[in-house]
Write a structure and sequence with these properties.
61% strand, 0% helix, 7-stranded mixed β-sheet
Length: 121
């Protein structure tokens, strides 16, 4: 059983910054990719950014140059630094991890409960 706990969401004015954190805990053997998705009202969930355990990153075009994903492998924690926020960044942000649990033969996706980010204009 793996749990992902997010923190750092909130309300910010356009142009401001927020930092999201997500810590994974439980019966973890290893974590490959960790990242963030978001879902705005009436829209599908979309990838924001992902980082592998080797440090490779991938970003949605809409956040490139504004958001930075990073990871602390020792703490099983992933971060998302969000700068120059825009109203269109408003969404529920979900943490994601591709986890190989102890005693398991294959990795599975785990999700956090989501944290609200609201950017006012």
């Amino acid at each position: 059983q793996v749990q992902l706990v997010e923190s750092g969401g909130g309300l910010v004015q356009a142009g401001g910054s927020l930092r999201l954190s997500c810590a994974a805990s439980g019966s973890i053997f290893s974590i490959n990719a960790m990242g963030w998705y978001r879902q705005a009202p009436g829209k599908q969930r979309e990838l924001v950014a992902v980082v592998t355990n080797s440090g490779s990153t991938n970003y949605a075009d809409s956040v490139k140059g504004r958001f930075t994903i990073s990871r602390d492998n020792a703490k099983n924690t992933v971060y998302l630094q969000m700068n120059s926020l825009k109203p269109e960044d408003t969404a529920v942000y979900y943490c994601y991890a591709h986890v190989l649990s102890k005693g398991s033969s294959w990795s599975e996706d785990s999700w956090g409960q989501g944290t609200q980010v609201t950017v006012s204009s």
